[in-house]
Amino acid sequence: MRQNIILFILCVSVIINVTGCSVTRFTETRLGQGLKKANKTKFKLDFQFDYNASDKSFNLALAHQPYSIYKPRITLIDLGAGLAAVGIWTMVFYDNWDHDNTFDFTDDTFDWYDSEWWEKAVLIGVPADILLYWTFAYPFDRKSIKMPKQLLTNHPYRIVLPDHGYKGVDYTTTTGEEQIRIKEFLSQLGNTSYLRGLDSLKFRSITDISGKQHRRNYTVSPFFFPNGNGPDPLPKLKIQTKWTKNPIRAGEKAILQITVKNTGDTLLRDLVVTTSSDNPNFNNWEHDFGNIQRSESRTQAISFSSDTGIFSDNVTVILYFKAHIGNVGQVFTEALDISR
Question: What number of other Cβ atoms are within 10 A of residue 260's Cβ?
Fold first, then answer.
């Protein structure tokens, strides 16, 4: 009896792996081994153009975002093994139903108990393999895996004023993440007195990739023309961040307290803080602070959940502050320790 059980398990395992390797393929893909078998890579352009009101400059990022796609090729051996397995299953099923070989199934019943152990293995193994593959392995086989970005260095781009005759300046990336100050940009355009008194000003960044032109627009509103050493009318922020408890245990709520004070001379409208983190529980959160009056201080908290199953982790959360005039304040980074 014990020997028959062992043979039965071995046979089921062999049938499952021969007919499609569903268990092996599923395990490899979940463990990331499928990347080694990737047969297609696609690239998506990551072109960002944003404004930082704190130092009156544009931040431009230009990179290729590669995606590795695992799509297993079905070889003739795979196809042959699959058809053979289905054929064997059909033969075994027929043999255990039509006992008198008359092709008349009305008087016959399926005989499970008198079938051989290998026949039981075939009857269970082939459908189990099909079920495993289509339920678990198939979606992961075709999963698109995001790979590290490839910053574009030494690549030309241009910043123009589309509403003012497309006057602009040509640049070349150095690191792929560039900073262009408005004052320096305008100084290279010559006479810009026509820009004084404008309420807003549209900027456009342009670059060509593989013969295709890509554009990003940003409108600075309100726009204040650089005028030497006069008072800065833009809002200024004083920001403080801290965890209410650090470290925390796995499964506990992590609460990040944020205090913002408008130290500028004007109203700060539509202030929003967003988060970025490698941990999905802490990534892509958005919290709205609303409008903050001059000299007003406001404290709010963001609550995150943590996984109960992890043993230990060190989470880094990056905070970005953005208002109606673009990015404001500096970028903050907070670390959190999670233990079991």
Answer: 22
Write down the pLDDT at residue 232.
Answer: 45
Which residues, including other chains, have CB under 8 Å from residue 33's CB and lie 6 or more apart? none
Among 54-63, 83-92, 313-322, which stretch is predicted with the lowest mean pLDDT? 83-92
State the Cα–Cα distance between residues 286 and 283, nearest whole angstrom. 9
* Mean pLDDT confidence for 279-304: 87
Higher pLDDT, 18 or 157: 157
Write out the E strands in the chain.
40-52, 57-69, 144-146, 150-151, 156-161, 167-172, 177-181, 201-209, 212-220, 237-243, 248-249, 254-262, 268-276, 286-292, 297-304, 312-323, 326-327, 332-339
Q: Report the alpha-carbon distance of residue 208 to residue 179 in Å, rounded.
A: 19
Greater confidence, 240 or 223? 240
Euclidean distance between CA atoms 223 and 201, whole angstroms? 6
Measured CA to CA, the distance from residue 241 to residue 331 in angstroms comes to 11
CATH class of the domain whose range is 237-339: mainly beta
Task: Quote the Cα angle for 334-311-305, to 5°.
Answer: 50
For the segment 64-79, what is each residue's pLDDT rounded down to a tens digit? 888 776 655 555 665 6
Tokens read off for 270 = 């539509």
pLDDT band, residue 216 (cuts 50/70/90): very high
Q: How far apart are CA 66 and CA 144, in angstroms?
A: 10
- Mean pLDDT, range 224-231, rounded to an integer: 56
Entry pTM? 0.46
Q: Which residues pair with 218 in a beta bridge?
A: 203
Is the Cα torsion angle 183, 188, 189, 192 positive or negative in sign? Answer: positive
Range(s) of the chain covered by CATH 2.60.40.10? 41-69+148-220, 237-339
> What are 198's two structure tokens?
């404008």
* Architecture label for domain 41-69+148-220: Sandwich (2.60)
Tokens of 81: 């093994």
